[in-house]
Specification:
Layout (H helix, E strand, L loop, with lengths): L35 H15 L6 E5 L7 H4 L3 E4 L5 H11 L4 E7 H7 L1 H10 L3 E7 L34 H8 L3 E6 L3 H13 L3 E7 L3 H7 L5 H11 E3 L16 E8 L5 H13 L9
Bound molecules: thiamine diphosphate, iron/sulfur cluster and magnesium ion.
């Protein structure tokens, strides 16, 4: 067993999320005030509440600060290559349909280099949960502009402002066919936990976007203060609008943030539709695929 890197005071009560983390890998690499850790806490609570058999839950991340999540969570974890978390997760699901497969990665990873995989997995309604941490930037590599950077925000590659329209991610996911779509911020810890739990229990392509502060790069470059200042911004500017048309939830630089559960519908998954169709077409000659 790996030696624990932090001194543990045995008299302290154990935090319930520890059971869901690889404590031997602490301390983590995230900066003070970074929102990623808060989302992991919510994820651990959601796993606890979901009552899923953890032996049948796998987590896949791509590359980036968020991509480190898979390595810290005490599940079967896969830290894959940049942008390839979703195709890796698709392979995992097809090979073993009994698994609950979770993709946990950043806005850059999932919607820039991995953007095509994202839209096609949603289109196919592959049964997986995608948790996307949107800090409006490529965090790990120095704060480059991302497909989520708001117009006018600065990044290391757009020092005088970005003029590319960012993706409206709930709209992108919903229009491609996602059966569950929600957006919250790292401030909304109870809502994030509930959304992740619902997404985990949903059959089909479920998507949860969580806005989270990157104080080291995004906030600093844009003179937005520290992590706490971003949390205050989330608190004061978020408006809950469940079931609203996702077309209307695009984000502006430091503008209003529409949060809520936007889509929750039932639709056959890729594997279900294939099994049903082949069962009708080939009758007894076809054994439904179960991995
Ligand atoms: C093929 C390839 N291209 C580029 C990189 C460099 N790279 C590593 S992480 C990253 C961006 C990650 O951004 P995001 O997914 O938003 O994660 P964050 O760090 O913001 O959580 C990039 C471009 C890489 N590792 N591999
Ligand atoms: S660089 Fe930004 S996203 Fe990465 S750990 Fe630091 S605060 Fe978080
Ligand atoms: Mg990012």
């Amino acid at each position: 067993m790996t030696e624990n890197l932090i001194d543990v005071d045995e008299s302290m009560p154990t935090n319930m999320v520890e059971e869901y983390l690889r404590m031997d890998r602490m301390p983590h690499i995230w900066c003070p005030g970074c929102g990623i850790g808060t989302t992991v806490n919510c994820f651990a609570n959601a796993l606890d509440q979901s009552k899923l058999d953890l032996q049948k839950v796998a987590i896949v991340s791509g590359i980036g600060c968020t991509g480190r999540v898979a390595g810290y969570v005490n599940l079967d974890s896969f830290h894959t290559t940049h942008g390839r978390a979703i195709p890796f997760a698709t392979g995992l699901k097809l090979a073993n349909p009994e698994l609950k497969v979770v993709v946990y990665s950043g806005d850059g990873d999932l919607t820039a280099i991995g953007g095509n995989h994202f839209i096609h997995a949603a289109r196919r309604n592959v049964d997986m949960t995608v948790i996307l941490i949107n800090n409006f930037i490529y965090g790990m590599t120095g704060g480059q502009v991302a497909p989520t950077t708001p117009v006018y925000a600065t990044a290391s590659t757009t020092p005088h402002g970005n003029f590319e329209n960012p993706f409206n991610l709930p709209y992108l996911a919903a229009s491609c066919g996602a059966v569950y779509v929600a957006r919250w911020t790292a401030y909304h810890v109870r809502h994030v936990t509930k959304a992740i739990k619902e997404a985990l229990l949903k059959k089909g392509f479920s998507f949860v976007e969580i806005l989270a502060p990157c104080p080291t790069l995004y906030s600093r470059r844009n003179k937005l203060g520290d992590g706490l200042d971003q949390m205050i911004y989330y608190k004061e500017n978020s408006e809950v609008k469940n079931d609203v048309d996702t077309k209307t939830v695009g984000l502006d630089f430091q503008g209003k943030i529409i949060v809520g559960k936007f889509v929750d519908k039932d639709q056959q998954t890729y594997l279900d539709i294939m099994n049903d169709y082949y069962s009708v077409k080939f009758g007894d000659k076809y054994t439904p695929y179960k991995g």
